[in-house]
Amino acid sequence: MHVRPVSLVALLLAVVFAGCVGIEPPEVGLVEDPDGSVLSYLFPETVTGMEHVRQMEFTLGDGTAFDMVGNGLFVHEGLAYVSGSNLVILDLRDDPSAPEVLAIVEDTPSRDVDIMVHPDGRIYAMLSGAPGIVVVDVTEPSAPEVVHRLPIGYHNLVVVPDTTIVYNSRSVYTGEGVKPPEQSPRRPEVGADVLTKGGLVDVIDFANVTAPVVEEFRLRGPTMLGTPKVGTAPACHDITVYPEAGRAYCAGVTETQVWDITTPAEPKILQIVHNPGTNIHHAAWPAKDHTLLVIGDELGGAAVAPGCVVADQAYGGLWFVDISDLSDPKPVGWYAPREQTRQNISCTSHFGGFVEDTQIMVMGWYTAGTVLIDITDPTDVKEIAQFADATDTWESRYYAGHVYTGDMARGVDVLTLVGDGAVTKTIQVR
Q1: Contact by Cβ (8 Å): 375, 353
Q2: Is 52 exposed, middle or buried (0-12, 13-18, 19+ CB in 10 A)?
Q3: I want to staple 406 with a disulfide (CB 3.0 to 4.6 A). Which of 70, 86, 305, 357 is the partner?
Q4: pTM above 0.85, yes or no
């Protein structure tokens, strides 16, 4: 169990609270709890900004410097898992502002990572990277071990929490690198027929992590709500899942699909969302109890985007769609960063998420870095802060008062939220 001494912040709070009779200063840091370790941290009552804390440095076991290229990342129970040139595991538990490098897993180049808490009692990092999906046992995070490599077409993936199901998103890829049918008998061969039969997603059951069962889910089926539509998506580029609501959202390049995942192994298309203003449906997140949908546009696949050059246009921006009546989705607004000065470079929305249970989003934006926005009114989005210092940010994730980035140019940056007032919050960690 990691239990750190009271931090400087806590000592300063002790001074502030010293004159308040009967009020105990809050503890900040990792503290003991009857149910396990708990991280106590400060969160602004009103978030007004975001400050850079540090750029991480990495070294291999032999002491040589490791030039980390950061891609997707995932934070789970006080540990950050960063994909990229290799999987890197960071410990945020002792001090979220100063992560400790626990491990660098060699020979794991990857684009995306998610965590599976398995019924076998183990914890696995699921990587989307050559030759397909790489399974790393991270039960002991300082001694991770690659336990399986599944050859299959890949781009991004997501684990359905509390299950052994993974949705494998291939984006515009087809059957390249698919696991041979004889090794996965329940899955038909996939090849050029994807172009005629419709896009697909691999629904993979990792109940046996070394012998997963791969099924396919076709994306061209009709919707279940409203006027019937037939999907046109070549594949899902990215999927976000919310099993507590029985929902998933497939950003399918040409459209975004809303799924019913009440039975995770058998998703059903509820609705298809088209938006003329979106060039490439790259990622999607629900807000406001699934009555608002945020769709990220990776204009031109980012590589051929014109850069951040027009401040009053939604090129590569975020679009907001009212789905309170799921049978009749309606676009209501968009956002793109105010700082629009860098031309002929990749500058579109990419990956991010929400800050706790607020309407504040943090988003990686390639060369525009990390943006922090308030979408309380999606017709008038407020930009709170932006960090862009020679950045090429793939993904930005919030955790315990801080923001962590996977950055292709800088590796990993740590930022902290600042604002007016402060409340003490806690979160369970491993």
Answers
A1: no
A2: middle
A3: 70
A4: yes
Nearest alpha carbon to residue 193 among 213, 211, 218: 218
* Both structure tokens of 219: 């994306």
Instruction: Report the distance separating Cα 49 and Cα 197, nearest Å.
Output: 48
CA distances to 5, 28, 175, 348, 396 from 402, rounded to whole Å, are 20, 14, 39, 23, 10
Using CA atoms, how far residue 308 sits from 313, 316, 333, in Å, is: 10, 9, 19
Amino acid identity, position 364: G
CB 26, CB 11: distance < 8 Å: no
Closest C-alpha among 358, 387, 394 to residue 375: 358
349 Cβ contact list (under 8 Å, min separation 6):
282, 283, 296, 297, 298, 316, 317, 318, 363, 364, 365
Of 143, 133, 79, nearest to 111 by C-alpha is 133
Reference 144, options 123, 161, 167; nearest CA is 123
End-to-end Cα spacing for the chain: 8
Instruction: Classify 70 in phi/psi space as left (phi over 0), alpha (psi -120 to 50) or beta.
Output: beta
Triad 264, 266, 270: Cα angle to 5°: 90
Q: Which tens digits make up the pLDDT trace of 73-125?
A: 999 999 999 999 999 999 999 999 999 999 999 999 999 999 999 999 999 99
Question: Residue 49: how many CB atoms within 10 A of its CB?
Answer: 15
Residue 312's pLDDT band, with cuts at 50, 70 and 90, is low
**Phi and psi torsions of 244, nearest 5°:** -65, -25
